[in-house]
Amino acid sequence: MTQFEMPSVDAVAGAAREILDTIKSDREFPEFRAASLEYSEDWQCFTGFPVVERWNLEADSAPLFEEGLRALALKAAVWGATGDDQAAEIPIAVPVDEMTHAMLAQSQLLARIAARSGVSIIHQTDQEHTDYRAGGYTHDCYRAAWGEPPARYWLDHEEVVRRRDVLAGLYQSIGMGRSGREHGITFAPAAA
Fold this sequence. Notes:
Elements: H1 9-25, H2 29-38, H3 57-82, H4 85-88, H5 94-104, H6 107-117, H7 137-146, H8 157-173, E1 176-177, E2 182-183
Antiparallel strand pairs: 1-2
Helix pairs in contact: 1-3, 1-7, 3-5
């Protein structure tokens, strides 16, 4: 599917608002929200959330959860209009995409909510696009649905790349190679 065949911004925005409202009104939504936010013990991402300036798990997780929901609603709206998985993988900002992973980890809850809501939740890592840019299709759809996205989380792709380079240098300075994907640390046995 080409960019020219994408559904209209207004159609996606209207459908995304409805999808979001339906998901939030589901009887299991509070449990889904709590489970997604509790994922914090496993949030050791080195290149997704940390690109947010002065990232703080406790302060940022709830607003980022809302952004993740909105991203999933936009993707579901595009899928609903096209039936095309690849078209539905619209560009999402890296921190928002990272939050959707925490949400998708609650697979049983999300699957039940989606089934009751009649919504298809779209996400496939090998097809995802984290090259979000202000002024692009995703930005236009978001703005039409909910107003201007918070720039704290909806970072342009080029800014994410720049921030990842900064992080990579800092990680390397403490022995973390490939932005936390490897290290040469040897752990001494615990003293008895």
